[in-house]
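Batch manifest line 327
LIGAND: oxa(dethia)-CoA
JOB: complex structure
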Amino acid sequence: MTQNAGIIGMGHAYPSGILSNADLEKLVETSDEWITTRTGIKQRHKAAENEYTSQFGTKAAQQALERAGLKPEDIDLIVCATTTPDQIMPSTGALIQAQLGAVNAAGMDIFAACSGFLYGITMVESMIRTGQIRYALVIGAEVLTKYVDYTDRSTCVIFGDGAGAAVLGPVPEGKGILATKIKSDGRYEEQLYAPGGGTKLGTTHETIDNREHFFKMKGNELFKVAVRSMSDISAEMLAKAGYTVEDVDLVIPHQANQRITDAVASRLGAPEEKVYSNIAFHGNTSSASIPIAMDECLEAGKIKEGDLVLLTAFGGGVTWGATVIRF
Ligand code: UT7
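JOB STATUS: finished
ARTIFACT:
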């Protein structure tokens, strides 16, 4: 006998600071028209200098716990998916554990870029299913604007900050996570990476002068791989769960680019009204994008009890994944 695992509470948080397309027009050679038509983004949230990743992760987690009717001490595991940790060590998951007072939990990070939340869900689902743990927090939290090069117009217009959190726990048979899969292909390393600051190049005057501590992206090459990977793995997970796209009530893709979302929807055969998008308001918040979007849908009543929801993500690594959930 195994135990079904599902999401029993969610929360999200983001900085109050906003960076609009008009603000970016003053920083780099770009235009509201280019950003809107090529990405769908109108604004993104930007942390202040004294704000950092774990603060947003903690805020989102507190809301998720409250909605799940649990206390911090009920949590066995905190998985924080982030590519923009507070610091190299300790993990942001451990820092969030301390901020929450989750004294009975283990805290850890998952480093899978924009697919990190689905990596966390996939790992935690099997731990709950096999009885290893009972309750876990999976958090996607990012302050990407501190890793973005504001002289590089191909990346700085895209990324924004925020966090989303989900409490996972036991749910009745037929509900919860029905199928989930994660994948990566490290051969595409240089399509989205930050080469500086690690053991390979270190942090030197040269790496900083070459701006190697910032994200670099070959967006155009990633675009096609993103569309193909997300639609293929989504179709595979729907089939594994025994459903087709017609059975799905809502598709929540990683918010990378409105054109990517539209192309994935079209390849899957999902009508526009069943595909959620908030990219205009948040930009691309990497691992935080799916849990923020899910929580917005729950708050707005767009996800109801019994709904079948498909999540799919793609990110640097490259990494990708899909999850089918019955609420
Ligand atoms: O989060 C998961 C991982 N990330 C992704 O999946 C991102 C996937 N890629 C994308 O979203 C898109 O490729 C971008 C939004 C990054 C770029 O859009 P694109 O339509 O692929 O543009 P492009 O890179 O092919 O560039 C087209 C032109 C170039 O000018 P030329 O060479 O045609 O003269 C760029 O220099 O647009 C120029 N350009 C810009 N122009 C104004 C690039 N960035 C900008 C900008 N403003 N911000």
